[in-house]
Specification:
Radius of gyration: 14 Å
Structural class: alpha+beta
Number of helices: 3
Order of helices and strands: HEEHEH
Number of strands: 3
Distance between the termini: 42 Å
Largest sheet: 3 strands, antiparallel
Helix content: 40-55%
Length: 114
């Protein structure tokens, strides 16, 4: 689990740097997650999920390693992430990334209502 989690987090670091997307990666190795460091972070998260679904991955900004995960699964997942990130950059550069969403982004559950 540690090895698979390390592969994922290392892959995220490499790919986000390659594509110039500011993120914060955190969590213990088998249970990692990342956040987009952008004012429209929830829109970016929704675009990531939407785009990964189009690539055949039910993925969010978290990854929980399981014994079923093998290195080839991680490589395929990271290859899909590598293909999705240029689209996220394109959406950001448009100035209106929300216009690329099929639905609505999630709302933050921890904001005060007043």
């Amino acid at each position: 689990l540690m090895k698979i989690g390390q592969m994922v987090q290392d892959g995220w670091r490499t790919l986000f740097a390659k594509h110039g997307l500011a993120t914060h990666i955190d969590g213990i190795l088998p249970m990692g997650h990342f956040n987009f460091e952008h004012e429209k972070a929830l829109v970016m998260k929704a675009l990531f999920i939407q785009s990964m679904l189009e690539k055949g991955f039910l993925a969010t900004t978290g990854f929980y390693a399981m014994f079923a995960h093998q290195e080839e699964h991680v490589k395929a997942y990271l290859d899909a992430v590598d293909q999705v990130l240029p689209f996220l950059n394109y959406a950001l550069s448009s100035g209106h990334p929300e216009s690329f969403l099929i639905g609505q982004p999630a709302i933050s559950g921890f904001k005060r209502l007043n």
